[in-house]
């Protein structure tokens, strides 16, 4: 059975590889990721994952897409390439708990869409000015939801996580495996 990963994220490809899954094709979905006014973070993540999966044409193949959102209360924090915005985001996350929502959609061979949502809680230490500066200098925050990447230096700034490491990183592997199996994909 053919599997298409509808993602431009190297993290998602890497995470799939960890469970022995190599997609037959990787086709990034080009969709508008602007949140709707007042849209709640879990609703937004689920909608965007579904839209990414639907945007990739793959008749008869399975299509997997995901969306990861860092949320402070009802606020969706940005995925940015701008250092000032990254600093502001990290200042907001400093010393407090936040949620990471990773939604996945799998379109099965019959064209039906299946959805799962993984929710994690992450608590960062309170950052000193030097810690913030050196994290920003690392550049690891670029293009990552919430301006950090748990799979890099940020892991050493995190006091606790509750939930799914792979979900925080971008593709919750438990939910992914569950949906792939249910769709008849052979995971070996
Ligand atoms: C919170 C967090 C996010 N991220 C990344 C995963 C995603 O690539 C990105 C969230 O943005 P997404 O919009 O979910 O994904 P993307 O635009 O990078 O890729 P695509 O839509 O094509 O699939 O943030 C990490 O790598 N580590 C983390 O700890």
Automatic annotation (TrEMBL):
Primary subcellular site in the record, as a coarse category: cytoplasm
Signal sequence range: none
Entry annotation: catalytic residues: 67
Family, as annotated: Belongs to the Maf family. YhdE subfamily.
EC number of this enzyme: 3.6.1.9
Annotated site location: Important for substrate specificity: 11, 68, 151
Keywords, alphabetical: Cytoplasm, Hydrolase, Nucleotide metabolism
Catalytic activity: dTTP + H2O = dTMP + diphosphate + H(+); UTP + H2O = UMP + diphosphate + H(+)
Protein name, UniProt field: dTTP/UTP pyrophosphatase
NCBIfam families: maf (TIGR00172)
CDD domains, per database record: Maf
GO MF term list: dTTP diphosphatase activity; UTP diphosphatase activity
Top EC class for this record: hydrolase
Listed GO CC annotations: cytoplasm
InterPro entries: ITPase-like_fam, Maf-like
The keyword Hydrolase is assigned to this record: yes
Domain of life: Bacteria
């Amino acid at each position: 059975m053919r599997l298409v990963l509808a993602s431009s994220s190297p993290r998602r490809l890497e995470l799939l590889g960890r469970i022995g899954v190599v997609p037959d094709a990787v086709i990034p979905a080009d969709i508008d990721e602007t949140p709707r006014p007042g849209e709640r973070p879990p609703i937004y993540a689920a909608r965007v994952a579904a839209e990414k999966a639907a945007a990739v044409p793959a008749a008869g193949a399975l299509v997997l897409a995901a969306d990861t959102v860092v949320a402070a209360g009802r606020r969706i924090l940005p995925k940015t390439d701008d250092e000032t915005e990254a600093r502001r985001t990290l200042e907001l996350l400093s010393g407090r708990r936040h949620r990471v929502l990773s939604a996945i959609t799998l379109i099965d061979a019959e064209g039906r869409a299946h959805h799962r949502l993984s929710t994690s809680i992450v608590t960062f230490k309170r950052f000193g000015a030097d810690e913030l500066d050196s994290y920003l200098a690392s550049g690891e925050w670029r293009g990552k939801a919430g301006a950090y990447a748990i799979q890099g230096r940020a892991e050493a700034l995190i006091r606790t996580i509750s939930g799914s490491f792979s979900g925080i990183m971008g593709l919750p592997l438990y939910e992914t495996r569950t949906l792939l199996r249910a769709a008849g994909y052979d995971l070996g």
